[in-house]
Amino acid sequence: MTSRVLEVAGLTAVLKTAEGEMRPVNDVSFHVDRGEILGLVGESGCGKSMTALSLIGQIDAPLASLSGRVVLNGQDLMLLSSHARRKLCGDRLAMVFQDPMSSLNPVLTIQTQLVETVLAHRHVSRARAKARALEVLQTVGIADAKKRLDAYPHEFSGGMRQRVAIAIALLNQPELIVCDEPTTALDVSIQGQILAEMQRLCSETGTALIWITHDLSLVAGLADRVAVMYAGQIVETGTTLEVLEAPRHRYTEGLIASTPAKFLGASRSRGARLQPIAGAPPSLARLPSGCPFHPRCAHAVARCQQPLEETREASGRTFRCINPGPGANP
Ligand SMILES: Nc1ncnc2c1ncn2[C@@H]1O[C@H](COP(=O)(O)OP(=O)(O)OP(=O)(O)O)[C@@H](O)[C@H]1O
Ligand SMILES: [Mg+2]
User: Of all protein residues, whose CA lies closest to atom 7 belonging to ligand 1?
Assistant: First the structure.
């Protein structure tokens, strides 16, 4: 039996900007089960980070309002006070951001930061907290972890700092970890090691993971399921295999056609000509009516300009496209 760790339904963030009202997170629904890795993928500016921040109610923008449901193991986080939500972070839910320094304090040793994070949420002795700190540093592959405990963040390389940021997220064995492009700046071998480690961790401990990235090929190798985001909306969800082999949304089809085949496994013939998606994503403050992708879509029909509902298949796959493709890739 699978157990649902996170259920997000109708999550919407409205920002009032000088350009007008915009919804970087627009009626977003998805779920993640125990031990599962969900890849949240989409172009720059489509609302991936805003979705992550909305989960914990931490949108750093004036005049922002949030609505919808974010249910973590049966508890609706949207009904919690901001104090209760903050307490939950680093405990039942952990976030890792692209810039590791945003989760590290430059004037404290790695040990202090790790130990204090344990003690902030767990009633254990300092010795137990230190043992746990050492354990997570080893988990993320920091060589000579014992010696490195007394180092300061500036004594670590960028890749090592990112590993420490991930180690901090693991400390209290959260039910859910959200990683927002934490490996984008790392070289591919370190990135590969971290991804393999995260996969192992999720399957061994049952931690659910949301991995946010603009890189479809990374998701292809990492995630069990994929949610594709465009202009603030989730346009398609499904298993990684379903989405890559038989995309339902024309935007997903375009993303696949613009990604080198060798990075996507068997889903396209190798050497097939890359076809970038024509045009650019719309401004979130001036979205076209209906499907936000229709102005760039070669298959758009008049009805694409009308409001559309999400289609849910019996298998649980969802998509927002009234003229879906045959599902076969070139
Ligand atoms: N504080 C803010 N005030 C107003 N608009 C914002 C604010 N933060 C983000 N936005 C806008 O919200 C939209 C979504 O931003 P978000 O950071 O979620 O994109 P993203 O998908 O994470 O992109 P990237 O891949 O570049 O990280 C963008 O259009 C961005 O300009
Ligand atoms: Mg982002």
Answer: 61
Q: Which residue type is seen at 310? A: E
| Residues 174, 190: Cα–Cα separation, whole Å | 23
As a whole number of angstroms, the distance between CA 245 and CA 128 comes to: 47
Q: Give the span between the Cα atoms of 1 and 271, in whole angstroms.
A: 41
Report which residue type is found at 47: G
* Alpha carbon distance 244, 323 (integer Å): 18
**Residue 180: beta bridge partners?**
212
Structure confidence by residue, pLDDT tens digits, 289-326? 999 999 999 999 999 999 988 899 888 899 999 988 77
Q: In this predicted model, what pLDDT tens digit does every residue of 219-263 receive, in sequence order?
A: 999 999 999 999 999 999 999 999 999 999 999 999 999 888 666
Ligand 1 contacts CB of residue 24 (under 6 A):
yes
Ligand 1 lined by 286 (C-beta under 6 Å)? no
The encoded tokens of residue 306 equal: 């009308």
Alpha helices in the chain (DSSP H): 48-55, 82-88, 110-121, 126-139, 145-148, 158-170, 188-205, 216-222, 240-245, 250-257
* Residue 284 near ligand 1, beta carbon < 6 Å: yes
CATH class of 4-92+172-319: alpha beta
Domain-wise residue ranges, the chain: 4-92+172-319, 93-171
| Cα first-last separation, the chain | 36
